[in-house]
Structure formats: structure tokens, C-alpha cells
Amino acid sequence: MKTTEVKIGNRVIGGGNPILIQSMTNTKTQDVDATVAQIKELEKAGCDIIRCAVPDMDAAKAIAKIKERINIPLVADIHFDYRLAIAAIENGADKIRINPGNIGSEERIKAVVDAAKAKNIPIRVGVNSGSLEKNLVEKYGGVTAEGLVESALDKVAIIERLGYDNLVISIKSSDVMMCVKAHELIADKTTHPLHVGITEAGTLKAGNIKSACGLSMILSQGIGDTIRVSLTGDPIEEIKSAKLILRTLGLRKGGIEVVSCPTCGRTQIDLIGLANKVENLVEEFSDLDIKVAVMGCVVNGPGEAKEADLGVAGGIGEGLLIKHGEVVKKLPEGELLEALRQELIAWPRPQS
What we know:
Layout: E1 6-8, E2 11-13, E3 20-24, H1 32-45, E4 49-53, H2 57-67, E5 74-77, H3 82-90, E6 95-98, H4 100-103, H5 106-119, E7 123-128, H6 134-140, H7 145-161, E8 167-172, H8 176-187, E9 194-196, H9 204-219, E10 226-227, H10 235-248, E11 257-260, H11 271-281, E12 291-295, H12 301-304, E13 310-314, E14 318-323, E15 326-332, H13 336-346
Parallel strand pairs: 3-4, 3-10, 4-5, 5-6, 6-7, 7-8, 8-9, 9-10, 11-12, 12-13
Antiparallel strand pairs: 1-2, 13-14, 14-15
Helix pairs in contact: 1-2, 2-3, 3-5, 6-7, 7-8, 8-9, 9-10
């Protein structure tokens, strides 16, 4: 799907640009120190665009102070009160997220559009299955993908009639297959960039599975310009999951891929513990684009790790360090992790 380019702060989406990762702070936005601290952690983890809730005027005014201290674009999330959207824009938001359906009259929507137009910042038009208009629910016999698409395009049409087309569209549902179908339908009806995600996906376990399934089906069709993995938990986990989904689909390079074998009766090392430690270790090396294997036994370990750049395989109280499928060193189990760290430190970096 070829979409138009949209500039959000210092980043550009659409038009074939790389898919960017978003998340949302869960701090009180008016608590500037806490919000900035969380944004910096998210940025370090790989977040490209951050969204903050703006439930009141104090939060809207805090945006200016937050913007002074962060490096990634900030999106202001507004519901119901059009004055908060205008205040967020005046305080430097790089983009605003509204649902024109709950902002109020067209006069109020126009006031928001005029403010965005004056600053030339994009408006993200968001529609969720949980807030689909009653007339569309009745028209389609319930909440459906078709209803979501019609609702979103209706809202877009309102803003376009007001003379503004610097837009991003978001249509989300907690129903994975409905969400997939809605994106397939809207992709043929607009060239505005799409922000993709499975809303209210759930806790870390369920949310990751639902998001991975839904996002994979959507993104693999060339649909989507930004993504968010919505999880009930630490927003850092959203970034980790989003990066892994994009990398698995071949849509983003960089970062170390960890592969590990399932445990079996031959396992004679704390494979689960070692694999988790390796997964945490490699987060320090985001500048490398390699594969690391963690294998549970020395019988099959070297063979199974042949496709990896580096690997470790466990034995009884000891293990093997493997490079390009060849055993390079035998070490006590307690020294495997540090040996792997040293290999990663010494690994050749790509020429800039």
C-alpha cells in the first residue's frame, strides 16, 4: 500500500519510509519529571514516536516542558474537549490524536483543524470498535470491520472538507480478525498513512500473541506505516515486542536475534535461565545485526547452531562457545555468559 508522506516532528512516515514504533506513557502527563524519565527509557529501548494522554489543561500545558527535554516526536491524545487539543497544539505537540465523533460540533472540529493547520502538524483520526456510532452498529448489525472503515472515512471526510489533509488514520479493534479485515478494506480506500495496532490486546502473554498474529497479517500485506503493541504492563515491553515483530517479518534490521532450543531429556544445563540471561544481555548490543543460538546440550548443540553467528551449548557443569558452527572454546557453565559478552564486544561493527 503506497501512502502519502506525513512529517511528525523530526520523523517521516508513509511514502515507503520505514515503519515506526509508537508507545504511550502511563505516567500522569502533568508530572513532567516522571513523564520525561519514562519517555527517555522508551526512546533508549527503540521507541520512535511517543503519545501522552491530555485529560486536562495542566497536561496540555505540560507538553511544552516535556518537549524541551526529549528527542522523539510527541503525540497528544485528546478526547471530548476540543480546547485541550488546541492547547496541546499551542504547547508544541508534534501531532494530535482525536476522534472527531466525540469532539463535538463541526464548529469545534474546525477550531482544532485551524489550529493544526496553523502549525502544519498532522491529525491522527482514531476510531475504535468500542466507540462505534450507534447508527453504524444498527446499519451493519453489530460492530463490524465495514462499520469501522465507514466511521473512519466519515471522520476523515469532515476534516478534508475543512481544507486539511495532513492526516493519519487509526482503526483498531480488540478482535484480531475484525481488525485485520478493517485494514484490508481501508487500504483500498485511502492513501493516508495508517497507524496499526490491536487495541486492548491484554496482558503481556495474551497481548503479545494477539498483537503478533494481527500485526503480522496486516503488515505482511504491505499495510501500515506506524505500529503500537498495546499491552497491559510496562510500556518498555511494547517496544521490545514491536521490534521483534518487525524484525521477524523482515521489515526492520538491527538488533540481535536470539534462538534457543526447547528443553528435553538431554538438557544438562539451566537452559531456561541461560536463554533468558542471553536475551537480556543482547539488548546492550543494538548496533549488531547477528543471530545468537542458545542450545541445551553438547550432543546436537554445535550442529543446531550452525546457522547462527554465535552460540553456546550446555553440558554437565560446562558448555561450548560456538562461532559460525565451529566449537572455539569449552568453558565452565558459570563462564559462558561472560564469554559470550566478550565475543559481542569484539564483534566487527558494520562500516558507517
